[in-house]
Design a protein that fits this description.
mainly alpha, Cytochrome Bc1 Complex, Chain D, domain 2, 3 domains, two-stranded antiparallel ribbon, binds heme C
Length: 250
């Protein structure tokens, strides 16, 4: 009886230790993006953009003028991987971004310089999203955005035009889309949504991501870190049980 108890306790402890050690390592580090070749920005622009938008951004038969569209729209198009497209008639959809953050900033600056003198489009919005009014943002979202992007931000088809899902957009990209109106989306200027309301809508769109399951088992929709924490707690509970059981005198 004692021997059986000892073996069972040993197995019990081994399982608990495995869970304890394994539970802490469930959160994977984000994949590093591959190194990209370093070329001067004007060369990158001519190779990747100028072929369609012209050497000075004034447009060609293959692409519209982008002189003076403003930093927000250029950053939106590049950072969501919509630009560059492989062919002039390619679908304009979100793709993995081609450039690093540094290269993106350099390209945005380079293209923005084409617009000097003209009436420039909006700059990249800087927002205090953390302090924004979530409830007011939700109200604005349902009024101004849900018709196209659906109430949960999953996107949808409207009159044969597709509005994309919003779950992969960063706070900056959401604000850029709202202010610039890319593609067939209408632009919302400060008269439609002031900066405070804009921050609220951005916060709400980010909030819409939370009910989604991000890998692993959907544990109260909390994601990989709490899952690790719970595995840890279960392991700890098992250890305590095992210890008490071994300690019990029969
Ligand atoms: C193969 C041709 C092609 C290439 C290469 C290309 N674009 Fe475009 N770009 C287009 C077309 C076509 C559109 C218009 C899409 C539409 O109808 O909304 C566009 C739209 C844009 C817009 C939005 C313009 C507006 O007013 O809506 C920006 C900004 C832009 N491109 C920037 C870039 C940048 C920066 C690069 C290089 C990194 C680039 N594009 C590469 C063809 C191209
Ligand atoms: C009339 C339909 C329509 C309305 C209204 C609309 N959008 Fe859009 N939205 C679109 C379309 C179409 C696109 C794709 C634009 C493109 O080609 O880049 C888009 C793109 C976006 C993107 C980029 C998504 C990504 O990750 O690639 C975001 C973010 C976004 N919209 C947010 C909003 C918000 C927030 C509102 C409300 C303030 C709103 N939209 C209102 C149609 C709409």
């Amino acid at each position: 009886m004692r021997a059986v108890r000892a073996v069972v306790a040993l197995v019990f402890t081994a399982v608990a230790v495995t869970i304890l050690l394994g539970g802490t390592s469930t959160a994977q580090p984000a994949a590093q993006s591959a190194a990209v070749e370093r070329l001067p920005t004007p060369t990158v622009y001519l190779r990747d953009c100028g072929v369609c938008h012209g050497a000075e951004g004034r447009g060609t038969d293959s692409g519209p003028s982008i002189a003076g569209v403003g930093r927000a729209l250029v950053d939106y198009e590049i950072s969501t991987g919509r630009m560059p497209i492989p062919q002039p008639d390619s679908k304009i959809v979100r793709r993995p971004a081609r450039y690093s953050a540094t290269e993106t900033r350099a390209l945005v600056d380079y293209v923005a310089a084409f617009g000097t003198g003209g009436s420039g489009g909006p700059d990249i919005p800087r927002l205090d999203v953390g302090g924004a009014d979530l409830a007011a943002g939700g109200e604005q979202y349902r009024l101004q955005c849900a018709a196209c992007h659906a109430w949960a931000g999953d996107g949808g088809a409207l009159a044969h035009r597709e509005a994309p899902g919003l779950h992969r957009a960063s706070a900056t990209q959401i604000a850029e889309a709202i202010r610039t109106g890319p593609g067939t989306m209408p632009a919302f200027g400060a008269a439609a949504l002031d900066d405070e309301q804009l921050a609220g809508v951005v916060r709400y769109v980010r909030y819409l991501n939370r009910p989604r399951d991000r890998g692993g088992f959907g544990l109260w929709h909390l994601g990989p870190v709490p899952e690790g924490a719970v595995a840890w707690l279960v392991g700890l509970a098992l250890l305590i049980l095992a210890t008490r059981w071994i300690g019990e005198k029969s």
